[in-house]
Design goal:
The chain has 310 residues and is of the alpha+beta class. Helices cover 61% and strands 9% of the residues. The two termini are 30 Å apart.
Length: 310
C-alpha cells in the first residue's frame, strides 16, 4: 500500500492509512492458510461429521472455525464504517489537517472522493477475498448445525451482500464523519447505524422472494415435502375453506397432532419454505437495495462537502 502508482489525494490517503490497509491482505493470508490446513486435515481422516464414532478433530476444528468466522464477518461492515467515519474523515476535520489538502490543488470534493474511493476499493477487494476464503472452508461443513446457507453470518459471508454492506459503511462513514466531526463519536455512531441497517435487512430478507408452499394429508409429515437444505418459514393446518390454523390447533383439543375435531374442517398440513435455490436471488436483490441506499448516502455526503466547503 505504498501508493507509489497513485497520484494526488489518492496517494496521500493510501500513505496516511497504509498500516491499517495492510491488515486486510494480512488477515486474508492467515485465514486462507488456516482454512487450507484445517480442510486438508478434515479430509485426511475417515469420519466427516460431528459426533461420529470415529472422531475427526480436523473436521471439528474446521466446523468451529467457520462458525466463529461467520459471526466475525458480521462485524466487518461495522469496522469499515467506523474506520472511514473516524480516522479517515472526522479526524482530519477535527484537527483541521484537511485544509492542507486544499492547498495542494485539491478541491473539497476531490479530498472527500479520495477517501471514499480508497476505502471502497479496499472494501471490495477485502470482502471478495473473505467470501472466497469462507466458501472454501464452509463447503466442507455446510450441512452442519448453525452453518446452514441461510444462517446469520454464513449468509453474509458467502455472497456479494457482504461487499454491499461494506460499501454502505463507506458511504455512511464519509457522511457522518462530516456531520459529527469528532473521531470517536463518529466511529461509534456510524458503526451503530450500519449495524441497525444490517439488522433491518436481515429481518426482511426472507420477504424479498415469495416462499414455496406445499401441502400434504394430516396423516403425513409436512417436513417430507420440504427439501432437506430448505429454510422453513412456517407450517400449520389448512381447513376446507383455505383458512390457515396454527399447527397445534388440533392438539389443544384432541391431544393428537393428526386427529382434528370435525367442526374444525381441517383437511391437510401446509409448509412454507425457501429452497436453497433462493440463496443467490435473495443475495442479489438485497445487495441491490443496500447499494441503492449507499448511493443515496454518498450523494448526500458530496452535496454536504460541496455546500460547506465548495
Amino acid at each position: 500500500m505504498s501508493g507509489l502508482t497513485l497520484k494526488g489525494p489518492y496517494r496521500v490517503a493510501v500513505r496516511q492509512h497504509r498500516r491499517a490497509l495492510w491488515t486486510v491482505p494480512a488477515v486474508m493470508v492467515v485465514g486462507l492458510a488456516v482454512v487450507i490446513v484445517l480442510r486438508s486435515w478434515a479430509e485426511s481422516l475417515p469420519s466427516g461429521r460431528l459426533g461420529a464414532s470415529t472422531p475427526n478433530h480436523g473436521y471439528e476444528l474446521l466446523y468451529y472455525f467457520m462458525r466463529y468466522a461467520g459471526a466475525g464477518v458480521l462485524f466487518m461492515p461495522l469496522l469499515v464504517a467506523a474506520f472511514v467515519a473516524g480516522p479517515m474523515t472526522a479526524r482530519e476535520l477535527e484537527s483541521g489537517t484537511w485544509r492542507l489538502a486544499l492547498t495542494q490543488s485539491t478541491t473539497p470534493k476531490g479530498w472527500l472522493g479520495s477517501k471514499a474511493v480508497v476505502a471502497a476499493v479496499m472494501s471490495l477487494l477485502g470482502s471478495a477475498a473473505i467470501v472466497g476464503v469462507y466458501r472454501l472452508g464452509w463447503v466442507r461443513v455446510s450441512h452442519t448445525y448453525q452453518l446452514h446457507w441461510a444462517d446469520r453470518g454464513t449468509y453474509e459471508a458467502s455472497g456479494p451482500v457482504l461487499a454491499a454492506y461494506c460499501l454502505l459503511g463507506v458511504a455512511l462513514g464519509v457522511l457522518i464523519g462530516q456531520l459529527v466531526r469528532r473521531t470517536l463519536v463518529s466511529m461509534a455512531l456510524t458503526g451503530m447505524l450500519t449495524g441497525l441497517v444490517m439488522l433491518g435487512f436481515g429481518a426482511l430478507r426472507w420477504s424479498l422472494l415469495p416462499a414455496v408452499t406445499r401441502t400434504m394429508p394430516l396423516d403425513g409429515n409436512p417436513y417430507d415435502v420440504m427439501p432437506g437444505s430448505a429454510l422453513m418459514m412456517r407450517s400449520g393446518l389448512l381447513t376446507s375453506s383455505g383458512e390457515r390454523l396454527p399447527r397445534y390447533a388440533c392438539f389443544e383439543r384432541t391431544h393428537d397432532m393428526r386427529v382434528c375435531p370435525p367442526d374444525m374442517n381441517v383437511t391437510s398440513w401446509y409448509v412454507e419454505f425457501h429452497p436453497a435455490s433462493h440463496h443467490w436471488p435473495t443475495q442479489l436483490i438485497e445487495s441491490s437495495l443496500v447499494l441503492a441506499l449507499a448511493c443515496v448516502t454518498l450523494f448526500a455526503a458530496f452535496r454536504l462537502v460541496g455546500a460547506r466547503r465548495g
